[in-house]
Write a structure and sequence with these properties.
The chain is built from 5 helices and 2 strands; from the N terminus they run H-H-E-E-H-H-H. It is mainly α and 136 residues long. It has 2 domains: 1-93, no CATH class; 100-136, no CATH class. Strands 1-2 form a two-stranded antiparallel sheet.
Length: 136
């Protein structure tokens, strides 16, 4: 396989990942980090490349199910779960708290969203429009 094919496959996977994260965001809209993690936990645990059993949590996780930390694929599953939660919530590296959006910006964003909803791939269109505006 050529390097070009390898890189194209990697880029296709990255675009596919983003598309699926957007769908997951829509499905989990309005949920907090704990709720998103709880919803994803059994799905990630049962992923065929991981198959990490869920066990009863101890100490601060008492009363909850957690990944079995003694399983060989625990670290990979746990890291995947962390990344998915962050990506779905839109948490970026170094982000510690939610940014307060001024009312006039929220109003403009709502207008942009409404205008973009008339087109296919509305979120991508809105993101592209914002990126272009910042580039000027």
């Amino acid at each position: 396989m050529s390097l070009q094919s390898i890189i194209h496959n990697a880029l296709n996977a990255a675009y596919a990942y983003n598309d699926e994260i957007v769908k997951a965001r829509e499905t989990l809209k309005g949920k907090g980090a704990d709720e998103v993690r709880e919803a994803l936990l059994p799905i990630v645990a049962s992923y065929p490349k991981f198959m990490v059993p869920l066990v009863d949590g101890q100490r601060k996780a008492a009363g909850k199910k957690v990944l079995d930390s003694t399983h060989a694929k625990y670290e990979a599953a746990n890291k995947a779960l962390q990344r998915l939660v962050k990506d779905i919530l839109g948490v970026t590296k170094g982000q510690t708290e939610e940014l307060a959006v001024p009312a006039h910006i929220a109003k403009l964003a709502a207008q942009l969203a409404a205008a973009c909803n008339e087109y296919e791939e509305a979120r991508k269109l809105a993101n592209t429009a914002l990126a272009a505006a910042f580039a000027k």
